[in-house]
Structure formats: structure tokens, C-alpha cells
Design goal:
Layout (H helix, E strand, L loop, with lengths): L5 H11 L4 H8 L5 H12 L2 H13 L4 H12 L2 E6 L6 E6 L1 H15 L12 H12 L2
Antiparallel strand pairs: 1-2
């Protein structure tokens, strides 16, 4: 992994702490206009060495793509128990929980960048697949 500058390390630390680009920008670039500082942070976040450092930090905390996707995957097949009938003739049945499934579908679409242009942050599958190949030696 490439070395980070002091500024890049502060940006990574801020992002891992959950700060917005604007918040980080105001801390890292105190003399810049807020809009300019956000743009500067965004540029740094797009650099390969910063992306690698972020991924490494998130993985140390258990925040992986698999951990993010797992609950969405579970939600896509969610079911619920309903009671059918009254009193002594009643029985329980498992049925699809469409409310949860629809929420999970929306989250999956958002995660995959469906409906977004590449400039708006849609996932670049080729880059992701290549990085996974390199990571796992495939």
C-alpha cells in the first residue's frame, strides 16, 4: 500500500470516524472556503492510496462489503409469521414480508448504483472485480 501524506491520513481518520467531507475539509483545510475544502477532500478520497487506506481501516473494524451486503441479502428473502383463523382453529403460517423485502430491494439498488450515472457514484464493477481478484489472488 502506498504511503499517505499527513493530510491524507487526517482525511482517512475523519472518514473512518464518520465525518462528512465538509467537516473533514474544514478541519484539514481551515483557510479554504468550505466549498473548496470539500472539493479538495473529494479529490483526495478518489486517489488509489487513500482508497486502499480507507478499505484497510474499515476492514480492521469489520466493515466489509460482505458485512454491508449480508443484511440486505437477508432482507430480500424476509418472511414473517401470521396467525390464520380464530381461536381453536387458528394456525401459524410463514409468509413473505413484502415490506422488508421492498426496503431491502431499494437498499440493494442504491448500493449497486442502479438509476445513477457513473458520475453520481454508481458502482464500477470492473474495478471492484479486479481489486477482489488481486486481493484474493484469483
Amino acid at each position: 500500500m502506498a504511503k499517505l501524506s499527513a493530510t491524507q491520513a487526517k482525511i482517512v481518520k475523519g472518514k473512518v470516524q464518520g465525518k462528512t467531507g465538509r467537516q473533514i475539509g474544514l478541519e484539514v483545510y481551515p483557510n479554504a472556503k468550505p466549498e473548496s475544502s470539500s472539493v479538495l477532500v473529494s479529490r483526495e478520497l478518489n486517489k488509489v492510496n487513500v482508497q486502499e487506506a480507507l478499505q484497510s481501516e474499515f476492514e480492521k473494524q469489520g466493515i466489509t462489503i460482505e458485512a454491508i451486503v449480508r443484511p440486505i441479502k437477508d432482507g430480500l428473502t424476509a418472511s414473517k409469521t401470521v396467525i390464520i383463523g380464530k381461536e381453536e382453529d387458528a394456525f401459524a403460517d410463514e409468509v413473505p414480508d413484502h415490506s422488508i423485502r421492498l426496503k431491502a430491494s431499494g437498499m440493494a439498488a442504491q448500493f449497486l448504483g442502479i438509476g445513477k450515472t457513473q458520475a453520481e457514484g454508481g458502482i464500477h464493477f470492473h474495478q471492484h472485480i479486479e481489486s477482489q481478484k488481486d486481493k484474493y489472488g484469483i
